[in-house]
What we know:
15 helices, 332 residues, globular, two-stranded antiparallel sheet, mainly alpha, 1% strand, 2 strands
Amino acid sequence: MRFLPLHSIVLGLLILPLSACTHTVVPTPQDPGRMESSLEGDTFSSASSWQKTWRQLSVKLQKDGLDKNFTRDVFARLDMPPSPVPMGIKVKELYTNAFIPRPKARPPKSFETKLGIPGPWFKGVVTTKNAKLCREFMNKHAVAFARAELNYGVPSEVAAALLFVETRLGGYLGKHNAFYMLASMAVTRSPEAIPEYTAKLAGADQHLPWIRGKMELKADWAYKELKALLAYCHANRIDPLKVKGSVYGAIGLCQFMPSNISRYGVDGNGDGIIDLFQVDDAVSSLSNYLRRNGWKSGLSVQRQTRVLRTYNAMDIYAHTILALAKTIRQLP
Length: 332
């Protein structure tokens, strides 16, 4: 499960507007193998090319069990070509880690704290000011936090601190459309589709088979997340074209990847809808996730860190949440 706080992964990325267009006719379903083959070499250089790509993706999703009318309608309103941004960023990250030498790391600076939580922490997060914002948020949504803590045993301070790190308590939910990002990534399968990114990677022409292989793996991953997102939106009467998220499709105050909603999402306020953009549902869902991944009362800081790392696999992430939670708890 991959969760990244938006402030640490969405930097300087552009969001393209989505607008309505006339409905297009979905062609007769074709063989999935032939469809994937045609998507693989598509560089989306003309309107007819990317429109065909969206139709093929829509058909594939319908064949995989998604509601036909719902799926057709969503793709009929998608009137722009696939974005190279999500796959381009991912390829740059993977390629840099694999082939670009890194400067020798400096020894970590000593970290002193009176909170008993290891460091370092995310810069500027663990402050009295931010702790007060979390306390005010908890008071405003006291019923939601009390219910979640009673049902799942996760302290309200930890839940609030996690929401602060992920989305600044819902103040920053991402500037991308999650559906568009995942759909774009799902159909971007070859280096030819992201020339503006591969051109900036030193020696990329010597590693094109490697890049292609990674792109195909990530495209398949994005397809599964896209399918989960559309299934979630259909079940909960949500318009996918209005769902904001990260560049990789994480959504809601708690930044769940779509495939985790069916496993951990909770209807916290009992209205029959799991809406991760509502505080009740987001707090209950993240608390359910932490409990099912090992959170319980009496855990040491080391064990709490281990549980929080299942949400985001970085020590600095877990330690920042624990330190902010303790700062909240120590407020007058």
